[in-house]
Structure formats: structure tokens, C-alpha cells
Amino acid sequence: MKFRFYPTSGQAEELARTFGCVRLVYNKALEERTRAYRLHGKGLSYEESSAALTGWKRTEELGFLGEVSSVPLQQALRHLQAGFANFFAKRARYPVFKSRKRSRAAAEYTRSGFRYRNGELTLAKLDGPLNIVWSRPLPEGAQPSTVTVSRDAAGRWFVAILCEETIGRLDPVGESVGIDAGISALVTLSRPIDGLTDGDGKVANPRHERAERRRLAKAQRALARKAKGSANRAKARLRVAKVYARVADRRRDFLHKLTTRLVHDNQVIAVEDLSVRNMVKNRSLAHAISDAAWRELRSMLEYKTAWYGRELVVVDRWFPSSKLCSVCGVIAESLPLDVRSWQCGCGAVHDRDVNAAKNILAAGLAER
Q1: Could you give the residue numbers annotated as active site?
Q2: Predicted confidence (pLDDT) per residue in 2-22, tens digit
């Protein structure tokens, strides 16, 4: 569960130092492990990296590492160990160094690094509890096991609290729905849903990025005029980041409300297996596809259906959902993208997207 908090100036300074130390320890440990492998053909283990960290704290050059909490530093070594494990298992690429400008500013605390009592969270080395905005309560009786503090590019502070929660499954329902993702309409459903779609079963695309495009362009022009390295450039960069953050927050909020409603109202949800990575290579549509966030939409459907006992069926991306007549089953020879409605030889007149959604649902139910 993630919450926003507002640190005091002292807490912000201490956490910023911790972020820097975490990044330094990660990079130095990665450098040592890489050097050891190149020289001796064998990398360092987590235990050897941890022992090296103790030695670094005793040196004059890196003695400041002992002034921050040791828990996030040890967690940085564990994250590096996990990165190497994924690399050797061929699940990820070789670990890379963390950049001060581009890497996420975060620190992870395990149970020994924080105290949670009476609704107050206090981290090691901080002068008091965090001023957290509890947007929702923690599960009753929950005891946090891990706390991650982070600061985003817009300067906002967040705390993510990991705890166990049992999510109750929803009662079964008899409805199913097929979803066709689009741009003019964010999604088109195989059947209309009251309060969610129009009469054709389409959910309008809010185009959050387009709504902020003028403000974003103004902020970016102001940033381009500032001298590199100046305080004014830092302020201008922060204004740009805040616009991006506002767009991302609104998009995420909209998708959460949409997917939650879909999961609550349907037992089976069928979607198309879109290759978004390849689709954004189309320069004409890349901006609109990225703003639609189809990948995030599917990700939310995946974990919410698993939570609530629903079923998500993924239809093959090569399935001709748009060209297949949902009435007689005949496939049209050609159907260019600019054709939004068409008539089949059987006499049925189809809206391209509605027809695709109906076919996706039928194919999904057949695959079950």
C-alpha cells in the first residue's frame, strides 16, 4: 500500500543522504563484483559484499556511510544479488550502475529499520514519525514487514508499506465481456454497461496527455531557456515533472476505476494480445498509443481478476477480430483502418470496433 507523506526539513535531508548512500553502495558493490570476475573469473557473494561494506565504513573516504541507517544499505546489496541471480538465470540483463539523475530515489527498510505503533511510522535515524496522509487504513491487525521510501521526479515523497492482506473473492456473476482496445474510444466492449459506456459499448478516451499538452509545452520551453546547472533550470525541470506526474496520476486513476468496474461486473473478460512494443514503432500513432496505456490496462486486469476470482482470457493477436463477421462467421477480404463500419454479404452491418469486441469474446469463451 502506497501513501504520500510530507517530511520535515531534517527528515528530507536525512532521507536524501540515505538515497545517495544506497546508490553509492550499489554502484561500488557492482564495480567490485565486476572487477573480481574480470581478474579472477569469479564474482563476489552477498556475504563478501556485506563484509566489504563494513570495511568501507571504516575508511576515511567512505566513513559517512556509517552515519545513515545500515538497513537500506544492506538491502541495496540484496537487490544487487537478486539482479545477478536474474542475470545468470537469463531473466534479465547484466546489472547496470544507478545514475544520480535518472535512477529512482528510494530506500528500503526491513523490520529492524522502522517502528510502527499506533498508526505512526518511524524510520531509523529520523527524528520523529513520518507525516503520512493515510488515504486508506492498513488491513486490520496488519504488521508491516517492509517499508520503501521514495521521492519522484516531481519532488513528491511516498512510502510503500508491505503487509499481508487476504482479499475476499467476489460472488460469481453470469456476465462476460470482450474488450477491443482503440484510440478514438479507449476500449469498446461487446455489450454496453450502464454508467460506463455509451449506447454502443464504447468508453471514450480521456486523452490525458493531450489535455495537458499546452501547459507541458510552455513548461518545456521555459526549461530550454534556462542555463544548464542553474537553480532556475532546476525549478523549471521540477515544473515539467509536475505536469508529467499530473498526467500519469489522472491516467492511472481512470484506468483503476475502469478495470475495477469491469472486474466486478463480469466473470470472464476476454482481451486481445496486443504487441504494444511493436505498435509504438509507428510514428503516426506512437503518441496516441502511449497515452492510451493499453499495457497498463491489461496489467491491472490481470492482477484484479486473480484477486477477485475472475478469469482473464487472452486471444491471439493474429485473430482477425475486425474482419470476421460476428453473425455469419465470414472473413472480409480487406478492411483498411480508415473503414469504421462495413456490411457483410449476409446483410449484417457492423461497427468495426463493436464487431471486434464481440468476436474477441466469442474466441475467448471458445479457448476456455
Answers
A1: 180, 272, 353
A2: 999 999 999 999 999 999 999
